[in-house]
Amino acid sequence: MLILSLCREENHWKLIPGYASAFRRRGIEFFCADDSISPNASLDEFLNSCPRRPTWIFHFECNRAILPEGLVRSEIPTVYFDVDTYAYTHRRIRWDSLFDHVAVFHPGYEDRFHQAGHRGAFLLPHAACLEFFDMPDVIREFDVGWVGQSSGPLYQKRAEWLPKLASLFRTNDWSRPYTLAEAADVYRRSRLVVNIARDDFRQDANLRVFEVLASGALLITAVPSELSPIGFEEGIHFVGYRQESEIPSLVRKYLNDEESRFRIAQAGRVKALHEHTYDARVERLVAHLQQQGTKKLAPARDWSEARARLMALDFFASHGAIHCAASQFRHIACRGFRETVEGAALLTRAWLRGTKFASVGTRRGRNTDTI
């Protein structure tokens, strides 16, 4: 059994390596296409790079906009991993219509895909790397641990509360970047970890919460939380807060109540290591795909060529791959009035965004050179 990944592990360094390792441990070859292949090259070019015909073609949401020509006509089932499903969901449903199966990472969104006509969507949440956490305990030297971005318009709550927590409790250096292994080490050396998600999606069951649960640190996160429909229970596996102002008192409470802290943290750890590792996700994913067999579930398979290409144009334009979007438009132009008009608008907006960002980047470059 062989999987062809259209992108490379480094294209999403937080996610793809975990899946790749879990597949390989299961005896399934995980082959990544070379990044020298053009992102809009023919599907045959990607397939010819494989040592043999793959069982499935995978693509992950990542930092490279890849969409092979002819993907929608693939005889091999295609799978897309849609990570930030909650952001621009209506656009993602359009793009993902080009794939037979769509793994959505957030509970409830599979239903939105089904309602929109994509029968191949299924839930596959984030997970933890077993090898980082299934090891002997170490001394938990930090009262509160934190790893993650803390700047930008979507993280104002983090920017406000992380310095406050650092002034009240012993923490790691939360301002620096960490590798996955380093992040796991921080969590394993922390008594508690407070999860402060994006300001626009407080309920997020992000990668951090699964790593913290697997580490044996007590997770304190906002409620309501996506962890609940996934099977975790507040007060049993994690502790919830309704307002950020509650966080300091909750931290003090569970630092002082070692018995409760240990009980909840261990319950979360056992459940996470048993049910929510990449190995567990791979088992479920393989079973699901084998049950589906060779079903061709991509809605775009039943569309006109112009409509399918419009979705590809939208994908490339939204990800800043203007030359690939323009290539799609050349195939669309004058082959469908609606698709031509919409495609021209999408391409123009993408070009204007690119011009704006390039201008800002140039100005920033000049300023940086003078510092």
Keywords:
Rossmann fold; globular; alpha/beta; 4-stranded parallel β-sheet; 371 residues; 46% helix; disordered C terminus; 6-stranded parallel β-sheet; 10 strands
Can you describe what's shown?
The structure is a single chain. By secondary structure, the protein is an alpha/beta fold. The chain folds into three domains: about 1-125 and about 280-300, 3-Layer(aba) Sandwich (Rossmann fold); about 130-275, 3-Layer(aba) Sandwich (Rossmann fold), CATH 3.40.50; about 305-370. The chain has 15 helices and ten strands. It has a six-stranded parallel beta sheet with strand order 2-1-3-4-5-6, sandwiched between helices. A four-stranded parallel beta sheet has the order 7-8-9-10, with helices on both faces. Strand 8, helix 8 (about 205-215) and strand 9 form a beta-alpha-beta unit. Helix 13 packs antiparallel against helix 14 (about 320-330) and helix 13 (about 305-320) runs parallel beside helix 15. It is globular, with a radius of gyration of 22 Å.
